[in-house]
Write a structure and sequence with these properties.
about 220 residues, about 70% helix, mainly alpha, Fumarate Reductase Cytochrome B subunit, two-stranded antiparallel ribbon
């Protein structure tokens, strides 16, 4: 039996962008936990010493923000909730049992909600991080604002770390998701099961490409 061709879900540039952001997040989360919890202070040695962690943490934060901003520009138009996503969100119990719900496009309701949560957290982390960044920017702001920014930074970090844990768990739970971000392709069976509307769109795109090739040959 002839194997069906794979569908491209992510291009190479998208995958590199994703893993750069993911790598930065891991470094920031580990060093940030070391700064926030005294019992985890030993984690700041991830950069060699606590002093180096203090220096590198904000600069890596800038790299992550730029990388995530590029991802945001790539995907924001695909992440507006529609009625099928609302239906998906209302059927979480059914989905957890392994049954898909709704005519889902490239992303489901959970992925879209996570996208906007991450976007909000990254924006808050960037703004608050600039305000508390010594010795460059913090002297420009009053102490009460710096204290508020510290609180916002910590809260946004905790929410983002929690969200990423859910994001990773969901990627592992739905077999075939992680390979799609590593290799960039998925099987037609996977696409048809988890993202039927996107599957139809991709198949129609392939049909048009084949038709165009035949007309030009």
């Amino acid at each position: 039996m002839k194997q069906q061709p794979l569908l491209q879900r992510y291009k190479r540039a998208e995958r590199i962008n994703h893993w750069v952001v993911a790598g930065c997040f891991v470094l920031l989360a580990i060093s940030g936990l070391g700064f926030f919890y005294s019992s985890f202070f030993w984690l700041t040695n991830i950069f060699g010493s606590p002093q180096l962690a203090r220096i590198f943490h904000p600069f890596i934060g800038i790299v992550m923000f730029i990388g995530f901003f590029i991802l945001f520009l790539r995907y924001w138009r695909h992440n507006f909730l529609d009625k099928e996503d609302v239906r998906w969100l209302k059927s979480v119990k059914t989905i957890l049992k392994g049954h898909e719900v709704g005519d889902i496009g490239k992303y489901n309701g959970g992925q879209k909600a996570m996208f906007w949560l991450m976007s909000a957290c990254v924006a808050l982390l960037f703004i608050s991080g600039i305000i508390i960044w010594r010795p460059y920017f913090a002297p420009l702001f009053p102490i009460p604002l710096i204290r508020i920014a510290l609180l916002v930074h910590c809260c946004a970090a905790v929410v983002l770390i929690s969200g990423i844990i859910i994001h990773v768990y969901a990627a592992i739970w739905v077999k075939g998701t992680i390979p799609s971000m590593v290799e960039g392709v998925v099987s037609q069976e996977w696409a048809k099961k988890h993202h039927p509307r996107w599957y139809r769109e991709m198949m129609e795109k392939h049909r048009r490409q084949e038709q165009g090739e035949k007309e030009t040959s």
